[in-house]
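Feature request, filed as a ticket because there's no other form

It would be nice if the structure record came with a short human-readable summary line next to the tokens. Right now we just get the raw output. Example of a typical job, pasted below so the devs can see what we mean:
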Amino acid sequence: MDTEHSHRKTQHKDGDIHFLTFSTFRCQPFFPGTHAANWFIEFLAKARERCPFRLFAYVIMPEHIHLILRPGDGISMRKIYWHLKRPMTDKVVTWVKIHHPTFLNRMADKQPTGDLTYRFWQRGGGYDRWMRTPSDLHEKIRYIHMNPVRSGLVSRPEEWKYSSAAEWIWGEPGMAKIDWDDLPPADG
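Raw output as currently delivered:
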């Protein structure tokens, strides 16, 4: 068994919790302000309606997103990826074409066939790690909430608007609803 990559899964069992990372195309800071981040929060809510999943934590950084979630019974991760990523790309590309067409150059991805595609996200599904234990889960939650602090964007995790940290720390509702009732407790 390839132990280095054994945490990566394309299929999951019902009840598995996933730590996801989606990076923007060429790791560019496509989430610098409020437009794109608010759109992602909107598509996150719509994805939860179309392919139910339980959300435990999230953070939207300038060049990537982390989510920790549990798919609903029978819901594939592929379907979740599609409902999170495709509408976001469509919305951003449409907006950029109308409001800031020179920005399209930063999103252009010339294919080997010569075709031109505009990308918001890095190619592929992103990084998907299965959370094996409650301690794995809670460690990753702390990790993602500290991202804005480590990046020098804020001094405390709860100050970052596009994160579940304030809800975790102070119980203040965030931009996306956390599913507390389904959250495995921390070990020990």
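Something like this underneath would help us a lot:
The mean pLDDT is 89.
The chain has five helices and six strands.
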